[in-house]
Amino acid sequence: MMHHYIYFEELLKKKNVFAAEHEAKWFQFPIKYRFDESLDILHISQILKALEIWQSNTCIKFENDQEASGDYIEFFEGDGCYSMVGRFGGRQGISIGKGCERIGTIIHEVGHTLGLWHEQSRPDAEEYITVVKEYIIPSYISEFLKRSEHEIATFNVPYDLGSIMHYGSTAFSVDQKSKTLLTKDPFYQMTIGQRDSLSFYNIKLINEAYCKGNFKFEI
């Protein structure tokens, strides 16, 4: 599982498609979480809304426990928005820094913690997108690497250009405007990178991974 990461602040900053390793899944439900004292009331309110969207559309359940131990999530205000992919065991941080208060951004980071890679990491990504490496900030090129079928489980869910886990057109662009990702079908160029809410296939994928395909759609 340590493909993107080195531990802890460094590890967390590196970050669809589900992590194939069996141990990456959460096995104890509800998943306990707590809030670090660095978070203000706005952050906490937005986190609660994001968690409710996951709960309303999947079998995943969360429970606040400020005295949590064992495997649990701790939300804190770090330098940016970041999370590990899948369960690592023990305290697991999700940073919701300044500028990360959007509900869709928090849903995205929780998705990582549940086991979702970025959509453009899928083994079949090249059939749908082109990565424009010359416009990517060099230190972030690894974020665009395609993963193998041994690292990623798709559960036969189609590639999802509308995934909340997909990077946008100018992600990590050297000038913040040149496109680093191009969709094979130009019609979908404005679709990638949405941070409004879960897509149908985001919901299906998590439910296939955790709930044996029994899922609902209530967004």
What's the domain count?
Answer: 2
By secondary-structure content and strand pairing, the structural class works out as alpha/beta
Q: Write the CATH architecture name of the largest domain.
A: 3-Layer(aba) Sandwich
CATH superfamily (homologous) name of the largest domain: Collagenase (Catalytic Domain)
Helix content: 10-25%
**Strand-residue proportion:** 15-25%
Stretches where pLDDT is under 50 for at least 5 consecutive residues are: 1-16, 215-219
Please write the string of helix (H) and strand (E) elements: HEEHEEEEHEEEEH
Question: Looking at CATH, which topology of the largest domain would you report?
Answer: Collagenase (Catalytic Domain)
Calculate Rg over CA atoms.
16 Å
Biggest sheet, strands in spatial order?
3-2-4-6-5
**Sheet with most strands:** 5 strands, mixed
Task: Describe the protein.
With about 220 residues, this protein is of the alpha/beta class. The protein folds into 2 domains: about 25-115, Collagenase (Catalytic Domain); about 120-195, 3-Layer(aba) Sandwich (Collagenase (Catalytic Domain)), CATH 3.40.390. It has helices at about 10-15, 40-55, 105-115, 200-210; strands at about 15-20, 30-35, 60-65, 70-75, 80-85, 90-95, 115, 130, 150-155, 180-185. The strands form 3 sheets. It has a 5-stranded mixed sheet with strand order 3-2-4-6-5, covered by helices on one side. β2, α2 (about 40-55) and β3 (about 60-65) form a beta-alpha-beta unit. α2 (about 40-55) crosses α3 (about 105-115). The longest helix is centred in the N-terminal third of the chain and has 17 residues, at about 40-55. The radius of gyration is 16 Å and the shape is globular. Residues about 1-15 and about 215-219 have low confidence and may be disordered.
